[in-house]
Specification:
- This is DUF2993 domain-containing protein.
- This protein is α+β, with helices and mostly antiparallel strands and 245 residues long.
- The protein has 4 helices and 13 strands.
- The strands form 2 sheets. Strands 5, 6, 7, 8, 9, 10 and 11 form a 7-stranded antiparallel beta sheet that branches. A 6-stranded antiparallel beta sheet has the order 1-2-3-4-13-12.
- The radius of gyration is 25 Å and the shape is elongated.
- The relative contact order is 0.16.
Length: 245
């Protein structure tokens, strides 16, 4: 019995040491991966990297991680307009089946899913900044985007009728979708301004717009989008996503 107790104590101690070693190793790997990702994507700050699953050491020995979570704040994506960028407030991605080099110089995820949030102020970059003629004597421009409820965007227009600015913005509820790597905003209905019926093509030239969001980390792509309280929430996805290298 005494020998059995000693054996049990030894097993417990070794198990504890293994857990400690495993956590030390995973913390080191997370730090190295974060530094590599920051360099590969030229990020202004170090991203959050979490390697899930236990034990880490057995995953590392096999050269593949089951589940890796990445978080990047204030990521600047390309808009397809030269050097113009659009800021993504929060980009979160969950990577599955991550193959990596032993020195963490390269890593590729079999699949990736995640979310990205773009504030309404950033999305305003896609709208026309100057008033546009929409009818004889009537001009309008977008002055605000906000949550319209039920997944819709409220597009607020400031109109001027024969030189007189209307006291209140005209609001239009719009649907937001992903189309060809663009966030596309399309008005559900057309407003009446100054008591006049407006030509659809002219009013839609203001209310409807697209925002290209390109060059996301590792080649992940836009999937779905929905209006939310502080901006649009985008679902992203990808396969064979390169995290570094």
């Amino acid at each position: 019995m005494r020998a059995l107790r000693i054996l049990l104590i030894v097993v417990v101690i070794l198990g504890g040491l293994f857990v400690i070693a495993d956590r030390v190793a995973v913390n080191f790997a997370e730090s190295e991966a974060a530094d590599r990702l920051r360099g590969a994507e030229n990020l202004p700050s170090t991203p959050d990297v979490s390697i899930n699953g236990f034990p880490f050491l057995t995953q590392a020995a096999g050269g593949e991680l089951d589940d890796v979570e990445i978080g990047i704040d204030d990521y600047e994506a390309s808009t397809g307009k030269g050097t113009e960028k659009i800021r993504i407030d929060h980009l979160r991605a969950n990577m599955r089946g991550v193959d990596f080099a032993s020195d963490f110089s390269s890593a590729t995820a079999a699949t990736a899913t995640g979310t990205a949030t773009i504030g309404y102020g950033e999305l305003m970059k896609a709208t026309k900044s100057e008033p546009t003629d929409i009818a004889p004597g009537i001009t309008a421009k977008v002055v605000g985007l906000s949550d319209g409820g039920d997944g819709k965007i409220k597009v607020s227009l400031q109109a001027t009728v024969f030189g007189v600015e209307l006291p209140q913005p005209v609001d239009v509820l719009s649907s937001v979708t992903v189309k060809d790597d663009n966030v596309e905003v399309v008005a559900d209905g057309l407003p009446t301004i100054g008591g006049r019926q407006l030509a659809e093509s002219r009013i839609r030239a203001i209310t409807d717009f697209q925002q290209t969001i390109d060059e996301l980390p590792g080649g992940i792509e836009l999937d779905k989008v929905e209006a939310a309280k502080d901006g649009v929430e985008i679902t992203v996805k990808g396969s064979n996503v390169e995290l570094a290298g």
